[in-house]
Amino acid sequence: MNPGERAPDFELPANQGRTVKLSDFRGQKTVVLYFYPKDETPGCTVEACQFRDDYEDFKAAGAEVIGVSDDSIESHDKFASHHRLPFILATDAGGKLREQMGVKKTLGMLPGRVTFVIDRDGVIRDRFVSQIRVKKHVAHALDLVKQLEKR
User: Fold this and answer.
1) Structurally, what CATH architecture does the domain formed by 11-150 represent?
2) Could you tell me if 16 and 77 are in contact, meaning their C-beta atoms sit under 8 angstroms apart?
3) Are residues 51 and 65 in contact, defined by beta-carbon separation less than 8 angstroms?
4) Which terminus of the chain is more exposed, N or C, with fewer CB under 10 A?
């Protein structure tokens, strides 16, 4: 999916026994939806900790952060606890949402790393793709969230 398109609504199981639905944020918050390959791997841990470190800035700008991988809820709970991650980690078992959003595998095997910024109306405002520039995902998303909030 690309900027200007409406993001599909989804309902996924999430850490801490939660269920997350995109429609729950409609009209209330911008959503930073980031897809990452796997809990507790080097790049994914750096990215998650960067989102953690900037999470209060995202909240202050009216946004919620949702991380998505196909890891289990148990894995997400351990990952979140180990790194004190305050945001939602959702499980996309089977990769259905990843496929709907057009998040391709890197080199045909590694789940892609893509960050979407979805405005309060459910419209994708940005899609940032980079498997290796993990910190750039966070900085790029935060800049755009702050711009959207000024409107």
Assistant:
1) 3-Layer(aba) Sandwich (3.40)
2) yes
3) yes
4) C
Q: pLDDT digit string (tens) for 71-109?
A: 999 999 999 999 999 999 999 999 999 999 999 887 777
Place of tokens 């790194």: 83
Show Cβ contacts of residue 119 under 8 Å, excluding neighbours closer than 6 positions: 30, 125, 148
Predicted model pTM: 0.94
* For the chain, domain boundaries: 11-150
pLDDT at 151: 66
| Three-class DSSP category at 36 | coil
The predicted structure's pLDDT at residue 27 = 94
The SS3 of residue 64 is: strand
Q: Which of 12, 20, 33, 44 is catalytic?
A: 44
Is 44 part of the annotated catalytic residue set?
A: yes
